[in-house]
């Protein structure tokens, strides 16, 4: 390591809120990503996993080190599947009496109730959940920046000390996440509507593609890709997640089924009185829902889209970004679409409304082809 790199690493370590040794149980995507991020901050990370091969792989990739008999962790992060979370949390609380134990399972109420039902002392346990992930799992897919800018729910109760809470929230902050306090019940109801039901909807929709003719699939554009992206998730994990949060998920699915039934009935007789209004109201309510989603920096902010045709050659996307920078146009979001058989792609760039004219005029002068803008109509 060079002197300058050593100085940067030292400065990062000093800035870390998390100190001492952190034990991470579960060396898959989330656990290994926690390890990578903490090690980048100069924190000593111990890894454990029931799979020796997974553990060795995570260690080889630099997510942490193997456990030693003299380890005395100050914090234990349990990153195992939901169906064994309570078992592992109970074991870690007993094995490390000087440590605060948190878990990152995507369901919070069921493990908490299971632990309470066993009479486990939960004074040092704080459930948490980072709203982050990837379609691929395992240590090989782990990233140190996985949690950057993402919410990290922390579930405290009346037994939680201020010091222990600060330890778990400090972990989230060190990983670049934003701590959000919720009860386990609030958390599970929230993820049902923003995570768990979207997974089911994407999977059900994607399943319709299995029997679709090849000619139909050849017409697939960004819309179907966007709405089915998460359908590539692992069935084994989602069976556990959905089973553990079945009640809140069913509530949302029931409401969704009612909405779909209303649209279906309207489309059975599209010329009947009120049918067009029913369809329009459905689309409008969807508009209103999308507008409520937090945008960049957590703001509910509307952007305009400029769609640019980009030749399928190396360096073209980089050149586009560079020239937008020269025009002082900030890219708020980007979506790429590649048309089958075409020698170009479509880059849909989101910008603030005031920058649309400057972007279109400047890019056109530089030889770019503008396919459309969101206010063309």
UniProtKB/TrEMBL annotation:
Gene Ontology MF terms: NAD+ binding; prephenate dehydrogenase (NAD+) activity; prephenate dehydrogenase (NADP+) activity
Keyword Ion transport listed: no
Top-level enzyme category: oxidoreductase
Keywords of the record: Amino-acid biosynthesis, Aromatic amino acid biosynthesis, Oxidoreductase
Record's keyword annotation contains Oxidoreductase: yes
Pfam family membership, one: PDH_N
SUPFAM superfamilies for this protein: 6-phosphogluconate dehydrogenase C-terminal domain-like, ACT-like, NAD(P)-binding Rossmann-fold domains
Prephenate/arogenate dehydrogenase domain ranges (all copies): 20-297
EC number: 1.3.1.12
InterPro entries in alphabetical order: 6-PGluconate_DH-like_C_sf (IPR008927), ACT-like_dom_sf (IPR045865), NAD(P)-bd_dom_sf (IPR036291), PDH_C (IPR046825), PDH_N (IPR046826), Preph/Arog_dehydrog (IPR050812), Prephen_DH (IPR003099)
Domain of life of the organism encoding this protein: Bacteria
CDD domains: ACT
Metabolic or biological pathway, per its Swiss-Prot or TrEMBL entry: Amino-acid biosynthesis
Gene3D superfamilies assigned to the protein according to its UniProt record, in alphabetical order: 6-phosphogluconate dehydrogenase C-terminal like domain, NAD(P)-binding Rossmann-like Domain
A Gene Ontology BP annotation from the UniProt entry: tyrosine biosynthetic process
Family, similarity comment: Belongs to the prephenate/arogenate dehydrogenase family.
Name used for this protein in its record: Prephenate dehydrogenase
């Amino acid at each position: 390591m060079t002197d300058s790199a050593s100085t940067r690493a030292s400065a990062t370590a000093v800035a870390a809120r998390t100190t001492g040794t952190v034990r991470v149980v579960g060396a898959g995507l989330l656990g290994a990503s926690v390890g990578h991020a903490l090690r980048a901050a100069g924190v000593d990370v111990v890894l454990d996993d029931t799979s020796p091969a997974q553990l060795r792989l995570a260690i080889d990739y630099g997510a942490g080190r193997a456990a030693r008999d003299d380890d005395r962790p100050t914090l234990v992060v349990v990153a195992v599947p939901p169906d064994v979370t309570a078992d592992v949390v109970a074991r870690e609380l007993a094995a490390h009496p000087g440590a605060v134990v948190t878990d990152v399972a995507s369901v919070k109420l069921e493990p908490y109730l299971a632990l309470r039902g066993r009479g486990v002392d939960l004074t040092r346990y704080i459930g948490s959940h980072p709203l982050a992930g990837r379609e691929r799992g395992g240590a090989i897919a782990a990233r140190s920046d996985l949690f950057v800018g993402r919410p990290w729910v922390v579930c405290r109760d009346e037994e939680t000390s201020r010091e222990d809470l600060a330890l778990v929230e400090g972990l989230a902050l060190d990983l670049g996440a934003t701590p959000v306090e919720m009860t386990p019940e609030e958390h599970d109801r929230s993820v049902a509507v923003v995570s768990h039901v979207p997974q089911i909807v994407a999977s059900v929709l994607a399943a319709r593609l299995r029997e679709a003719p090849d000619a139909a699939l050849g017409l697939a554009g960004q819309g179907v890709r966007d709405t089915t992206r998460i359908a590539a998730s692992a069935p084994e994990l989602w069976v556990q997640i959905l089973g553990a949060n079945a009640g809140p998920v069913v509530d949302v699915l029931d409401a969704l089924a009612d909405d779909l039934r209303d649209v279906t009935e309207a489309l059975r007789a599209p010329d009947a009185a009120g049918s067009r209004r029913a369809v329009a109201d459905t689309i409008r309510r969807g508009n209103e829902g999308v507008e409520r989603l937090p945008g960049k920096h957590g703001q509910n902010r509307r952007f305009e889209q400029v769609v640019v045709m980009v030749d399928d050659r190396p360096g073209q996307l980089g050149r586009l970004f560079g020239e937008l920078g020269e025009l002082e146009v900030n890219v708020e979001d980007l979506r790429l679409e590649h048309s089958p058989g075409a020698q170009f792609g479509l880059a849909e760039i989101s910008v603030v409304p005031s920058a649309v004219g400057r972007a279109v005029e400047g890019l056109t002068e530089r030889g770019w082809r503008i396919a459309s803008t969101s206010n063309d109509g």
